[in-house]
# Entry
Amino acid sequence: MNKIGTMGLLGLASIMTVGGTTAWRMPMAEPPRILSAAPTSLAAPAEPAAPKVAVAMAETRPVTLQPYLDLPDIPSSLEAIRAALALPPWSKTLDPGDTLGSMLEAAGVDSPMKSAITDALASEYDLRKLKPGYELRVLYGSTPVPVSVELAVGEGKTIEVTLGSTVSARTIEPEAEQVARAGALEVEGSIYASLDRAGVPTGFANDLGRILDGFVDMRRDLQGGERLSILWDETMLPDGTAVGRPTMRYAAVDVEGMLYEVLWPSEDAGSRHSIYRNGALLKDLVPPVENARLSSVFGPRRHPIFGDMRQHTGVDYAAMRGTPVKSTAAGRIAFVGWRGGYGKVVEITHGNDTMTRYAHLDAIRPGLSAGDVVAADDPIGVVGDTGTATGPNLHFEVRIGGRPVDPIAHQGDGFDKRPDGQRAKAALAATRADFAALAEIDA
Ligand SMILES: [Zn+2]
# Structure
């Protein structure tokens, strides 16, 4: 049983939602991305190219004159005529047993055109991944010869094939938006149920329990009545579907008169995890790789190479090969060299029986050897994929008394916490303001 499941058993009473949740849309900087548009030639019959004059007219802007001179909007009229003459599109959702070929045949596409479309789609998308539920649309002009084909492959992504004198295919990525959301609630019953009722992702119970481990016991200490505030980010498609995993940016929980606040890596907090008690920095976790994505967390997981369930003894940070890896705290080098599946590793002891391990390194800092003393933030090597790794990443491990512990929760334990007063205060203030602004919208 996983941790969430355990938490779900903790209480039976109902919860009270104080604030509920709100959404605030922040458009992402990038417009929809066209990944590639490689034209390929086509032997099949093609629609004649549009006359040049039509293109020229399409580029004029009669809309500014129209209100004064009452001229007809010629390009719009042409569009309207074209649209009126166009045959209706053919579309069908893939059912089990359907193939691309059978679908195109059903749409009345002839053989040469069919193979041209298939080749073009295959240049952009692995057709072996076609699944029931995907949708194929064939669009026509005024003749029953298709002018374009669209294959919707889930999560808002579409492969578009344009059929003209050449055939070209491109991938249209969904116009995803990063949406910041805030939820406030009062715990009653289990935290899992409380989050669920307030519309906050329940997986956060696990994340929060892990990071507050040692300060707050989410099972015992939450008796009911504690206020919980959470700020998080979600990636959403235009139709409101959430994609990917929601990520927490801020959480506040008051337990027996103590206010605990947590900042996860963000624009405000930088790449650190910071924990505060009553507004004062309690713990500041410095990652061994700056601005890297945490690609795998600590705990049981399906092994990416061997395929079976294994305990993941550390966390993985995905980063480009050659990215500097730094010591997370002051200590003494205990081992430098090759260690089986870990590949090239550096191990550092920090006192209190605590050891950190940095694995899959592409290279170790020249001259670094056992017995050397290092400070926090000292470069010790660079990211690579030596040993058993699917790609360049840093496997970072913390062991206490030889036993692997969750680095996100324990990285700062027993050694250099590097408090950074000004930065920590500013990060907390900025994040609190973000939360308040969102919670305000809801009020
Ligand atoms: Zn790993």
Notes: The chain has three domains: 3-28+176-285, 34-49+85-172, 293-410. Residues 34-49+85-172 form a domain with the Nuclear Transport Factor 2; Chain: A, fold (CATH 3.10.450.350). Residues 1-68, 413-418 have pLDDT under 50 and may be disordered. The pocket of zinc ion is lined by residues 296, 312, 314, 316, 395 (CB under 6 Å).
